[in-house]
Amino acid sequence: MAVAAFVFLRTGAVVAPELDTFPAAVGCCLAGEFAFALRTGFCLLVVITRGVVELPDLAGFEKRKQHTAKIRILARSGFGLRTTYGLKLHRSYEEKLYISVKTIYMSMAPITVSVRVQLPPQQLWKLWNDPAQIVRWNAANDDWHTPEAANDLRVGGKLQTRMEARDGSFGFDFEAVYEVVDAPNRLVYRLGDGRSVELELHAEGHETVLMQRFEPENEFPVELQQQGWQAILDNFKRWAEAYTGATAVHFAQEIRMAPAALAELMLQELPYRYWTAVFDPTSHYVGDWKEGSTVDFLCTLPNGANRGTRARVVAFRPGQYIRLVHQGLIEGDTFINTGAEAEVWLGLNEIYSFSPREYGCLLTIDVDVPHQYADYLMTQWPLALARIRELAETQIP
What we know:
38% strand, 21 strands, Alpha-D-Glucose-1,6-Bisphosphate, Chain A, domain 4, alpha+beta, 22% helix, 8-stranded antiparallel beta sheet, globular
């Protein structure tokens, strides 16, 4: 015997005209648990035949081979259960039918966001997939950041990131498995909940159109999801078009000190001289750390003159985030921003992020360095981080 029900959903409202053929408990369950906000109206036909759930193709929805919907069936004893469209059906010996749709993902129409970037696809592909770059651009605004990223760019490989609010109030892990890797044209990956995400790069003259298509989830309004994904894509555009071509390096260190205390300690004169001495024994800075101010990072030459770089403080959030952008060189009392030697420093980023952890703080440092200094700085920065940790943890009783 087959039992069928048409369930109409329009902006969260439920009308189930045929549910009188179901036990009363089923009607109550459907009416209560379908009441989450699905945006556009559609009709779902559920057919239960001897415990088997059949879902036909839904108009306006994309059928997937690996459907992620889960319908729990507490079926009568003796019903034969099987998987249909990837649904997970569970046997129970209750004397009633019960359908729970709290975890349904209905394969709603994908959302598309796009942006036009003044760079070729080959360069954008590298910036999009390099973990040292992902941690720079993967946020909708400066209230958020990505302190950790790993990317195994191959079919079957995983993309893994950690996104957090800078004030430590919220964070989540993001993981996906690649299904298509076609450099530098197209990426497709599958999220942990089964939803699909696709990225396409189309060259148009001297520009590239990035188009990202994703299947929405059912917890947040579609408009909010679209705005969030678009904001991240817009941030990528800003970052990519400002990219100088320098080597991007990313470092992280766990430190047993609260973020605010650590940030304050690092910028104090004597501690700063100690942890930056790995770069030069005379290392020091002149300036203040207010947003919009400039800071000169200097070392003292044998003749007593100072030499170094000047950077502008783009963002300073005490205990959360510091971003500097280098503007040129300092030679003695002279600021230089022209010429080959100075120009390699123009626009380079130096970013410090302080993320709360149970043990204290995860300090991440993201630095752009000229290619000719990359090997040296890749060696020295870990030594500097070790000194920062030493300073912090020797002060803890």
